[in-house]
Write a structure and sequence with these properties.
40% helix; two-stranded antiparallel sheet; single chain; four-stranded parallel sheet
Length: 239
Amino acid sequence: MAVVVWVFSGGGEAEVRGLLPFLEKTFPGCRFERKTPIRQKPGPKPNKSGGYGKTGNSLIEQIEQELPIALKAEPNQCKLILVFDDLDCRDSHKQKSKILEELSKIPESASIEKFVGFAAPEIESWIIADWNNSIAKHSDFRSRHDRMRWWLSTEKNVPFDSPESFSEYDAEKDCCKAKLSTALIESTIVENQSNIDRTRFSKGLHTPLLLMAIDPNEVQKKCPLFRELYNYLQKFCSS
């Protein structure tokens, strides 16, 4: 019987639609249940002040609110609390300590194993890390992926061998100075013959699809924080 993992995830549409299917495919020994972001009900989307797409401190506040509710509604179900967020160029050790400290204040969860994982700076780094299995093979990009890669390397300084190190922290905005996902979008719309009348990269559409195409073994070679998450879940879900 699969082990139940509760996932408290930050981020927006790409993370919501892409993360759980990726986890389920990669770690079949676990059953992943999403607790945040809160599932959107049919109808008009909430405004940005609503409960969707929390990250950083806002995600921590949401976990503090939702975890006790879940523990009361489903006691003795969860075997692992997995918190996952885009790091956005913050310090991973500080963020992890902050999250674990807040979780320790919820006594009902004391006996449940916990792990905090990050995509650095964003989940698109996993796609960049395995470019040949993701962008290069997708029908929307395969005819221009070489030019996209060249532009990202030369114009945006995207380090393809270590994509987690892209950009640097902006203390005023509490996030990266430059967004990796924005650079990826720009690579498909920058003025060039290969982009004329072609599909632009969409975080909501393409990121979930491409996450299902990547080879985790390739990604973990270039992304240390991904490797930490990958190795932990490999062991936990197979034990």
